[in-house]
Amino acid sequence: DAKTTQPPSMDCAEGRAANLPCNHSTISGNEYVYWYRQIHSQGPQYIIHGLKNNETNEMASLIITEDRKSSTLILPHATLRDTAVYYCIVRVARNQGGKLIFGQGTELSVKP
Amino acid sequence: GAVVSQHPSWVICKSGTSVKIECRSLDFQATTMFWYRQFPKQSLMLMATSNEGSKATYEQGVEKDKFLINHASLTLSTLTVTSAHPEDSSFYICSARDSSGRASYEQFFGPGTRLTVL
């Protein structure tokens, strides 16, 4: 699976959009981009995933560049409860046996 | 959404004893479960992939005789840390893959088990 690079930490003001970048320059054509987050001392929580089109759900939006070498997770209106470590993971599809391998992630601090 | 539970949520044991951690998928069947370990201020490290009815597949560097994995049913996988030592103290997290494929993201995580070895 391709390796990802994320900034180690970011701050965001409460109520503002949080934009978390991820570089995955070695991504292959059959690999998806997944985002999970982990609130302190809890198990990871799925946020969103995509292949090449932008995706949006009730939690966030995922913007993938046309060359698929990077992506941005957008939390449109960050709240204090969004403070967590956010992991960007690249992996092959489930039916190809892909495992979730976690990198170091970005520690997002949402401040009042 | 699908729920994965772990038991116990925390455990303290003496050095040299064995500890069993259970991972259950509560409302779905999981032919595949995964075990991760997380040390303080670090990311999750995949330890092994547990397949129902067959032997687990361990990641490189993980001692299979120390971390025994059993996946005897479609809803239960267990991780036994044998002869635990203080360096085994960690946060152990399991995840389960929905066999039906109904969920597009298909892998659900448990809340974790905090192991402290004295």
State which percent range the strand residues of chain B make up: over 45%
Number of strands of chain A: 9
Large-scale geometry of chain B: globular
* CA radius of gyration of chain B: 14 Å
Largest sheet of chain A: 5 strands, mixed
Mean of the pLDDT scores of chain A?
A: 92
Q: Please, how many helices of chain B?
A: 0
Instruction: Summarize model confidence as the mean pLDDT of chain B.
Output: 92
Residue share in helices of chain A?
under 10%
First-last Cα distance of chain B: 37 Å
Radius of gyration of chain A, CA atoms, in whole angstroms: 13 Å
Anisotropy-based shape of chain A: globular
Based on helices, strands and strand pairing, what is the structural class of chain A?
Answer: mainly beta
Biggest interface reads:
A-B, 20 and 23 residues
Describe this structure in words.
The complex is a heterodimer of chains A (112) and B (118). Chain A has 112 residues and is mostly beta strands. Chain A has no helices and nine strands. Chain A has strands at residues 9-13, 18-23, 31-38, 45-50, 55-56, 61-64, 70-75, 84-92, 106-111. A five-stranded mixed sheet of chain A has the order 1-9-8-3-4, with no helix packed on it. Chain A is globular and about 40 Å long. The relative contact order of chain A is 0.35. The mean pLDDT of chain A is 92. Helix content of chain B is 0%, strand content 51%. Chain B has no helices and eleven strands. In chain B, strands 2, 4, 5, 6, 9, 10 and 11 form a seven-stranded mixed sheet that branches. In chain B, strands 1-3-8-7 form a four-stranded antiparallel sheet, with no helix packed on it. The A-B interface holds A 34, 36, 38, 41-46, 49, 85, 87, 94, 99-105 and B 4, 34, 36, 43-46, 49, 91, 93, 95, 97, 101, 104-112, 114.
